[in-house]
Amino acid sequence: VTAVGKVNLAEKLAQFDEHWAPRIVAEANGQEIRVAKVKGEFVPHHHTEGDEVFLVLKGKLRIEMGNRSVELREGELLVVPRGVEHRPVADEEAHLLVIDPASARNTGNVRDERTRDRLERI
Amino acid sequence: VTAVGKVNLAEKLAQFDEHWAPRIVAEANGQEIRVAKVKGEFVPHHHTEGDEVFLVLKGKLRIEMGNRSVELREGELLVVPRGVEHRPVADEEAHLLVIDPASARNTGNVRDERTRDRLERI
Predict the structure, then answer these.
(1) CA distance B89 to chain A (A)
(2) Whole-prediction pTM value?
(3) What is d(CA A12, CA A34) in angstroms, rounded to the nearest whole number?
């Protein structure tokens, strides 16, 4: 049985400043619940492992998908389906909760200098 | 491919007043993302289908598990592992985001007057 302890999202986010480097804060049913600080334009990518959920905790996030774009504010979430190319963009720093299959790499099918093959558990 | 549309959690919560009757607002990787309004003491129960995630969006939630109790405030989450008996209690109305396997019934292994065999998708 997994240890049962609560997670304060703001406290977790206060533990790091790095952008685009999600930290794992909880696991459930093969999914990882991650928090991330983001700013600027990320690399367009997709995930073959599964769907990805973005929930904005602070600030704003734009998710560009081909010729579409979805703007998320605090308290808004988006599910990006498996295989759909997306590019997260934040004009100012934003704080996110992200849910991915445990195996999913942050840059999906792409490898660049922001790729993290192993995410830290905090 | 699932439709891609954003979900504003506060707008979804404004659509109903019923307590302990979660609404489904999104799906990802076999999990349902649900929102719920709760107040009072729920029935102690467990889920055989999988783990359950509680994230408090507004107010406070106490989750009693045997002789332990975890108090969650806004921005705090808890994963209740599969099979662990838990009793959610909210002294005042609280608003929650809850993540469950798509098959999971709100009252888990218990059936009472608050059981919802089918949850509404809003």
Answers:
(1) 16
(2) 0.95
(3) 10
